[in-house]
Amino acid sequence: MANTKVGQVDGKPVSIRTVAMASAIGTTIEWYDFLIYATAASIVFNTLFFPSGDPLISKLLSISTIGVGFFARPLGAVILSHYGDRVGRKSLLIITLVSMGAATTVIGLLPTYATIGIAAPILLVICRLFQGLAVGGEWGGAVLMAIEHSPEEHRGLYGSIVQVGFPLGMALGTLSFFGLAFLDEEAFMSWGWRIPFLASAALVMVGTFIRLHIEETPDFEQTRKQGNVERFPVWKAITKHPKSLLIGLGARITEISWIYVLTIFGLSYAVTTLGLSRTLILGAIAIGCVAELITIPLFGALSDRIGRRPVYMMGCIAAIVLAFPIFWGIQTKDPTIVIISFVVGMAIGHGVMYGVQASFLSEMFPANVRYSGSSLGYQLAAPLGGGIVPVLATAAVGVTHGATWPVSLLMIGIALLTILAVYWSKETAPVALKKKASAGGALPHAIKPSL
Questions:
Q1: The dihedral formed by the CA atoms of 51, 55, 58 and 62, expressed in degrees to the nearest 10
Q2: Given a cut of 90, is residue 212 above it in pLDDT?
Q3: Residues facing residue 15 across a β-bridge
Q4: Is 448 part of any domain?
């Protein structure tokens, strides 16, 4: 693995490994904050913040609030990526991390419906809105901090290291709830569920310290020195690169739908409908996250060797093949098969696509609109795949009295859309582009070496 020096911190040289790991640590904390909400909404908030005479209605209301964060993410991308392309990647990463931590900590302090009535779910939704805004601007900056520092031939690998922050954050969040299993139900519902949210304050301080000690990317510095900073980068990305934005949306929709159907709908379905142990399912999700720590960088590195498009296609096909077997496995209620189902669904169905996603999306755009373009392409899929699809899955199972075949068919249909988007795209990996150039083609401006 290359260990290229990319700058200095306190007079000492810093390697791309250090930059990538620092970006991954900060991203881990942000995803931890964002994802513990999904876990709590699946098993806690329906009772504490949305009491109802009909358990299905309470569950749908609770899970629907997860979508508030997803719908806020494109807005966060529009607002924050504008400044990421104008004032730099680093400063925005600090802002998003602190904002996310503040919103998460407040959730841990909120009184419930039994205490303040309708104000409780309203305040909860407001906090979720701020979480969504923060994460909407965070991903692009974290990915670009690593990719724009790295050698072009290793962008897939170093971009995937930042992506590891997602399963790490999910694992931390899941394990935090898993660790509360020793509490009885009354203690857990009274105060235990608040601990993961309140722990965010300490994690954010650590992440902020780390991000303060990383330099701005050379791509942005070069853009600024050349006077090529766009006045309205978001608008420029939309008007000059609409195809890339649509491809980013289409490429992302399966990956995000798949992981949230497994971890939001799957958790709720297994525990509530099938009556499986919450501890078993949370443990299975945590193991799946650990498995993704291997598959994400593995397929990110593979994309540096064979190209982004072939790897992404592999992930889409895997999602189609697994759409039915995953739920069949969960329905067996056999602990071993249930765990394997979650692990395979996460590590393969999600990990393959997620590993290549950072480099694939960011390489579609030139440096002066890269933060805006990659963020929008990534976040536009969030309301659909992360907000609407889990709710549709929950409703479909409720209407069909526990049948999961509509969910499997939905996931296959979404995967076919992603295959079309990737087929429509152009290869962005330098190894594939150099082969094309040697045969008489040309490198697109977004991929030319900028270091």
A1: 120
A2: no
A3: 5
A4: no
- Rounded to whole angstroms, how far apart are CA atoms 369 and 438? 28
Q: How many CB atoms lie within 10 A of CB 378?
A: 28
- Which one-letter amino acid corresponds to residue 288? G
**Could you tell me if residue 272 is inside a domain?**
yes
User: In angstroms, what CA-CA distances link 46 with 75, 220, 433?
Assistant: 26, 45, 51
**How many C-beta atoms lie closer than 10 Å to residue 429's C-beta?**
26
Tell me the pTM: 0.83
Rounded distance between C-alpha atoms, residue 345 and residue 267, angstroms: 13
Residue 408: closest CA among 357, 364, 349, 367: 349
Enter the tokens of residue 330.
């969960």
Residues facing 5 on adjacent strands: 15
Whether residue 199 is contained in a domain is answered as: yes
**More confident position, 48 or 9:** 48
- In three-state secondary structure terms, 6 is strand
Q: Which amino acid is at 260?
A: Y
Residue 233 confidence (pLDDT): 94
**Structural domain of residue 22, as residue ranges?**
13-212+222-432
For the stretch 117-138, pLDDT in tens is 989 999 999 999 999 899 888 8
The answer to the question of residue 244 being in a domain is yes
Retrieve residue 87's tokens: 């004032």
Closest CA to 128 of 174, 182, 61: 61
192 DSSP assignment:
G
Handedness of CA 82, 87, 88, 92 (dihedral sign): negative
Count the domains in the chain.
1
Paired tokens of 122: 């309203």
Residue 391 has pLDDT above 90, yes or no: no
Q: Where are the alpha helices (DSSP H) in 213-277?
A: 218-225, 233-240, 242-260, 266-268
pLDDT digits (tens, 9 = 90+) for 326-335: 999 999 999 9
Closest CA to 258 of 360, 362, 344: 344
CATH code of the domain in which 201 resides = 1.20.1250.20
381 Cβ contact list (under 8 Å, min separation 6): 248, 249, 252, 253, 256
Type of residue at 347: A
Q: How far apart are CA 100 and CA 127, in angstroms?
A: 9
Residue 88 and residue 85: Cα distance in Å, rounded? 6
CA distance 8 to 322: 46
Closest CA to 143 of 102, 101, 98, 84: 84
Q: 76-111 pLDDT, tens per residue?
A: 999 999 999 998 888 888 888 889 889 999 999 999
State the Cα torsion 269-270-272-274 to the nearest 10°.
110
Tell me how crowded residue 289 is: count the other CB atoms within 10 A of its CB: 27
- Token pair 């009491």 is at which residue? 51
